[in-house]
């Protein structure tokens, strides 16, 4: 069983590292949008690609297309749930 709290903290750090943003990862709320103009981080498609590659290598979870990536990478909660799912 995955510890979701620890996973979410790890994902916040990973997103900040991969996106190169100067932002405290612990200031990211679990349900806060990660992409778009309403996002504090204002991540873009290149960030999504970089994060997707790391998620695949680190957690062995593959995002199959850009539509799925944007759904899964919407916020920390959706990403943590995707990673913790057994059959995705």
State the order of secondary-structure elements, H for helix, E for strand. HHHH
The CATH class assignment is Mainly Alpha
Fraction of residues in helix: 40-55%
Write down the overall mean pLDDT.
Answer: 92
Work out the oligomeric state of the chains in this entry. single chain
CATH homology-level superfamily:
ACP-like
* Uncertain ranges: none
Shape: globular
The biggest sheet, with number of strands, parallel, antiparallel or mixed sense and barrel status, is:
none
What's the N-to-C terminus distance? 15 Å
Annotation, overall tally of beta strands: 0
Strand content: under 5%
Structural class: mainly alpha
Q: In the residues, how many domains can be counted?
A: 1
In CATH terms, what is the architecture? Orthogonal Bundle
CATH fold-level topology: Non-ribosomal Peptide Synthetase Peptidyl Carrier Protein, Chain A
How does this model look, in words?
The chain has one domain (4-84): Non-ribosomal Peptide Synthetase Peptidyl Carrier Protein, Chain A (Orthogonal Bundle), CATH 1.10.1200.10. Helix 1 (4-19) crosses helix 4. The longest helix is centred in the N-terminal third of the chain and has 16 residues, at 4-19. It is built from four helices and no strands. It has 88 residues and is mainly alpha-helical. The model has no long low-confidence stretch (mean pLDDT 92).
Topology of helices and strands:
Elements lengths: L3 H16 L25 H15 L6 H7 L3 H9 L4
């Amino acid at each position: 069983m995955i510890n979701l709290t620890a996973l979410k903290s790890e994902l916040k750090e990973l997103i900040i590292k991969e996106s190169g943003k100067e932002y405290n990862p612990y200031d990211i709320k679990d349900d806060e949008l990660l992409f778009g103009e309403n996002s504090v981080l204002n991540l873009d498609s290149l960030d999504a690609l970089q994060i997707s590659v790391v998620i695949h290598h680190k957690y062995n979870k593959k995002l199959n297309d850009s539509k799925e990536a944007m759904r899964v990478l919407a916020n920390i909660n959706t990403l943590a749930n995707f990673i913790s799912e057994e059959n995705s």
